[in-house]
Amino acid sequence: MIHNWPLRLKCKVEEFTKELFYSLYEITNVESDRSKKVRKQFIDILEQLEITNAHIIWEAFVKQFSKIQKKLELDAQAAFDKDPAASSIKEVYLAYPGFYAIAIYRMSHVLLTMGVEILPRMMSEYTHGITGTDIHPGAQIGDSFFIDHATGIVIGQTSIIKNNVSIYQGVTLGGVQVSKELVNVKRHPTIENNVTIYANATILGGDITIGENCIIGANVWITESIPPNTIVSHQSSIKTKIRNSYAS
What we know:
By secondary structure, the protein is of the alpha/beta class. It has helices spanning about 10-25, 35-50, 55-60, 65-80, 90-95, 95-115, 120-130, and strands at about 135, 140, 145, 155, 160, 165, 170-175, 190, 195, 200-205, 210, 215, 220, 230. The protein is about 40% helix and about 15% strand. It has a five-stranded parallel sheet. Strands 3-6-9-12-14 form a five-stranded parallel sheet. The chain has a four-stranded parallel sheet with strand order 2-5-8-11, with no helix packed on it. Helix 2 (about 35-50) packs across helix 3. The longest helix is centred in the first third of the chain and has 18 residues, at about 65-80. The protein is globular, with a radius of gyration of 21 Å.
């Protein structure tokens, strides 16, 4: 069976996502010129996705912008406070791929909670492609979230990340099994407040909780819960070869 899927919509969603990010602080109400431009893109996309009441959804979405802005301000401040390479908040907004991925997540998550289908996932996949960070819009992420370096991060659909959490490159918050029967089951970990997860750590399972104030070291593999105030590290073994010398 041949389906006439609107595949060119991917390009329109990419343009919409970029414009939405650029306009987040410029759209002050639904009647502004900037709002009208982005609204037109939004309505066109929803119509092609066969989603009704696009005008009503847009108006409700715009009303959430102030809340999204406040969350992003906390995220940007967290990046500035935790990264010694950050020279200013402005640099975080303009140059940090991790912050960009978080910003698109914040907006796509709101759309998903409003019942908008497919578009939030398309937005997140566009961001995944340009930042290397794959955050499912269904994940629940608290305030002051910091992603450093971004590349290779995967945060699954049912992940719960609470406040003041930092994640470095290559981290996976994933599921133990991949099965359609688990569609309504929590498959991904819960990360409590004030946790730092260093590069290439893998945490798997929906019943897994990383307790408050934990530090998860680089390259660890976790499939069981970790109690609060714990440091988990991967122990490397370093051996030096000694070359035998022979007298001639």
